[in-house]
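Lab channel / #folding
Pinned by the channel admin:
"Please post every new chain as: sequence first, then the structure tokens as a reply. Keep commentary short and put observations after the output so the thread stays searchable."

First post following the new format, from NK:
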Amino acid sequence: MPMYEGIGLISEKHAVVLDIGHAYTKCGYAGEINPRCIIRSEVEPGKSLHSINKKDELYNALVEFIHRLYFKCLLVNPKDRRVVIIESVLGSSLFKETLARVLFRHYEVSSVLFAPSHLLPLFTLGIRTALVLDVGHSEACLIPIYEGVPILKSWQAQPLAGSTLQESVRVHLLERGQLLRGSGGDESPTPLAHSPEILTPNILEDITVRCCMVTSLNRGRELDRVTQDASQVTSLSTLLKNSAPSVRYSVGGDSYLEIDGITREGAAEVLFQMDTDGNCIGSMILNALQSCPIDTRRELASSLLIVGGTSMMPGFKSRLNQELLYLLS
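Reply from TO:
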């Protein structure tokens, strides 16, 4: 190969990769193992990009948001690099079209590639077939991938994700949470229900990430039985003694929030409880398998790939395995 061709290949600039999720946006360069920047997908505090339904308003919000990504996070000229957008195949067409219009018209990028978010994780493992379960902020979505092709007729989705989990934490804390004031929280506690404004979305998210976990199947069933039947005071006190230790969470100044063990263990049970239609995260996987072509089921069942921020909770994968074995039995 002539020398000038090698120089041209070396000087090729890596594409910009954008993953604009419902809660956070990850951006970086193709070929790197980590994103360069992770920021909230918000145009202003409390207002997500994905919550905007008007085309003109979304266009202006994306112009401002993409400007922040390029000139404050990545520090590159948009015209110099191609763009890869990691998008959900079940996402809003309005959002995709508006994002493409912003990149081409306003920032004049050379090319844009929309890549399915469920397909890309397979490339990192070097496999072509798997059940891909994405448990993110707004929903849990499962799409079977067979030989690199998504089986879209077998997709499953449920609103069992980070936002549901944070709401469960809020309900548990308002029921049993205690607010401690004074140096070291030595003053007499007051019920958190008297000051619900303390539980802001950011604090709930931080508590969920730092303090909560997914317990075992038998323990989860016991927690559900006791917490739903308020008459079992003796069982509740016994459960509290054997539960995870309480922790104190600082909410600013000399105020602390005491989070009991039942909240830490039981908040995640909402992800595995059957709804009125008999659906939960475990049943999503089995329903997807049953709706796939029969000759693909064995290979799909042998490989389950779990992605998404909520799936990183301690104990999630072990509990999901127990749920699947219980449903199959």
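NK: DSSP finds twelve helices and 16 strands in the chain.
TO: also worth noting, The longest strand covers residues 140-146.
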